[in-house]
């Protein structure tokens, strides 16, 4: 076993809150061999047998909620409410797929599409990729690890999880829990940094990656070289469009929560806001007033803070640089704009910026901080154009009292999900696809049947209902047979009588 360890530090005060082994490529290979050996037995259990284990696992997670959320809080310093929400969403998702997996993975029998093919019986079956590699980021580490692993396990795959080196503790603990309930050895955690993740990409048969676009491209490239599929859930720059007839009170509350939830470190955070000119000033006034009341600090349930620190000094530097870049190009800091220092950790003040434009990093690059840059626009058309002027396309929101208009605007946005009069709610709707467009990703996370079928290879089984000794298409090719077949095919394919019945020379 490796003697290299990674110390995990609290983002609030940089104290060491735990440590994990950092696995080498050889150790990852050995771990994957172990779960690969167990996978056929797991698959043979069938969906009902696997579901029983997942349900027992859900109960173990419920019974260990304080311990797990405690670890999650220690490594992320996120408020207790948000740590619990991660766990609750994970459990809800386990229930969702336990309830629906059997139907989602059931054999299908599509009917033959034409008279000729009606003589065949078609069965579509689904077989899991033997080993699924799940590579996760630090922002919602527990939810992503469990949400990606549970459907893969239910599908019959073995799963290896490589958590972020910044936040491996809760993930490692919940995967230990799988062993504690005595479940088959098909779920393993391989902590480490980027090189350990790269080793997972070498060993697995399917990669479910969540993280930055930069790393996603590297993984996608390597997966293509290995000819294995990958689902890449990457960065975002979600736009919020506030039309003149919006409920400004709800919209401003949502902007502050949607932009600053998890200190703005959510892939689907509100990252930029476009507001129609006639309501811009009033919207900014309300947002600013609310941003003032957002409390910065740590929150263990007793203390009162709404947002914790950023994950690291690197993230703090990115947010600071982007705000400074905006100011240097003419933006106004209405509130916040600087590091906050309740405990000397990587805290940043809730920040509202106005007078922003698309030359600024805050409007173009993922910020991942508690920042709300607000831009005045002439009308919905300009808002849509600017919202689409981004390399990213994860999700977005539209605010209007006219929901029909909201839907129309939504359809014109280049984003995988659009909330009308809401933020982040697409994440809580498991039947909805969560799939980024453009540089926000490829493939899809969640999304009803697609969210579990993606872990399977489809197989078509074709049976002939009638089995004569010979078939008209088979050898020998004779002019008589050829004429007959071609006449039949013409008759079937052509859509007008003339072409159906036309004589032909050869
Ligand atoms: P990151 O890309 O730096 O790291 C993600 C994971 O990849 C980590 O576990 C890391 O160790 C691993 N890794 C790094 N190099 C690797 C390599 N060469 N091969 C294999 N694995 C490697 O991302 P991060 O900073 O941890 O996470 C933040 C990013 O995640 C943001 O861009 C955010 O938008 C994105 N994110 C996206 C979604 C989504 O669903 N679209 C959800 C959450 C976070």
Automatic annotation (TrEMBL):
<dbReference type="InterPro" id="IPR016163">
    <property type="entry name" value="Ald_DH_C"/>
</dbReference>
<dbReference type="Pfam" id="PF00171">
    <property type="entry name" value="Aldedh"/>
</dbReference>
<comment type="similarity">
    <text>Belongs to the aldehyde dehydrogenase family.</text>
</comment>
<feature type="domain" description="Aldehyde dehydrogenase">
    <location>
        <begin position="4"/>
        <end position="460"/>
    </location>
</feature>
<dbReference type="InterPro" id="IPR029510">
    <property type="entry name" value="Ald_DH_CS_GLU"/>
</dbReference>
<dbReference type="InterPro" id="IPR012394">
    <property type="entry name" value="Aldehyde_DH_NAD(P)"/>
</dbReference>
<dbReference type="InterPro" id="IPR015590">
    <property type="entry name" value="Aldehyde_DH_dom"/>
</dbReference>
<feature type="active site">
    <location>
        <position position="233"/>
    </location>
</feature>
<dbReference type="InterPro" id="IPR016162">
    <property type="entry name" value="Ald_DH_N"/>
</dbReference>
<keyword id="KW-0560">Oxidoreductase</keyword>
<dbReference type="InterPro" id="IPR016161">
    <property type="entry name" value="Ald_DH/histidinol_DH"/>
</dbReference>
<protein>
    <recommendedName>
        <fullName>Aldehyde dehydrogenase</fullName>
    </recommendedName>
</protein>
């Amino acid at each position: 076993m490796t003697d290299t360890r990674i110390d995990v530090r609290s983002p609030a005060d940089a104290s060491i809150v735990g440590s994990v082994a950092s696995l080498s490529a050889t150790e990852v290979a050995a771990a994957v061999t172990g779960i690969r050996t167990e996978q056929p037995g797991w698959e043979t259990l069938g969906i009902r047998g696997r579901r029983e284990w997942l349900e027992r696992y859900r109960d173990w997670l419920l019974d260990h909620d304080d311990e797990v959320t405690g670890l999650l809080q220690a490594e992320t310093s996120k408020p207790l409410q948000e740590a619990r929400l991660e766990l609750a969403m994970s459990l809800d998702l386990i229930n969702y797929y336990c309830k629906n997996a059997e139907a989602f993975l059931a054999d299908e029998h599509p009917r033959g599409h034409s008279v000729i093919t009606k003589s065949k019986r078609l069965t579509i079956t689904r077989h899991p990729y033997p080993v699924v590699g799940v590579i996760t980021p630090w922002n919602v580490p527990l939810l992503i690890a469990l949400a990606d692993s549970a459907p893969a396990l239910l599908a019959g795959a073995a799963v290896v999880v490589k958590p972020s080196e910044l936040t491996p503790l809760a993930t490692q603990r919940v995967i230990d829990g799988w062993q504690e309930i005595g479940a088959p050895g098909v779920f393993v955690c391989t902590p480490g940094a980027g090189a350990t993740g790269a080793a997972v990409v070498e060993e697995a048969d399917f990669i479910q990656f969540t993280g930055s676009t930069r790393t996603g491209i590297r993984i996608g490239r390597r997966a293509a070289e290995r000819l294995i599929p990958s689902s890449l859930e990457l960065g975002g720059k979600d736009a919020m469009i506030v039309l003149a007839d919006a409920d400004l009170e709800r919209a401003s509350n949502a902007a502050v929560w949607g932009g600053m939830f998890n200190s703005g470190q959510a892939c689907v955070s509100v990252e930029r806001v476009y507001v129609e000119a006639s309501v811009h000033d009033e919207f900014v006034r309300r947002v600013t007033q609310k941003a003032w009341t957002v409390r910065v600090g740590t929150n263990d349930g007793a203390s009162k803070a709404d947002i914790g620190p950023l994950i690291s000094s690197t993230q703090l530097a990115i947010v600071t640089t982007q705000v400074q870049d905006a100011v240097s190009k003419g933006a106004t800091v209405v509130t916040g704009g600087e590091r906050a220092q309740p405990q000397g950790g990587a805290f940043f003040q809730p920040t509202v910026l106005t007078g922003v434009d698309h030359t600024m990093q805050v409007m173009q690059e993922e910020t991942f901080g508690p920042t709300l840059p607000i831009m005045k626009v002439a009308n919905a058309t300009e808002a849509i154009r600017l919202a689409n002027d981004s390399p990213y396309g994860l999700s977005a929101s539209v605010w209007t009292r006219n929901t029909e208009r909201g839907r129309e605007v939504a359809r014109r946005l280049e984003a995988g999900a659009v909330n009308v009069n809401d933020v982040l709610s697409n994440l809580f709707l498991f039947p909805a696809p969560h799939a980024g467009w453009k540089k926000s990703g490829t493939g899809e996370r969640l999304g009803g049947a697609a969210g579990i079928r993606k872990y399977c290879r489809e197989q078509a089984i074709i049976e002939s209902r009638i089995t004569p000794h010979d078939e008209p298409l088979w050898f020998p090719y004779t002019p008589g047979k050829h004429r007959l077949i071609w006449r039949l095919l013409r008759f079937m394919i052509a859509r007008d009588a003339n072409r159906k019945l036309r004589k032909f020379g050869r």
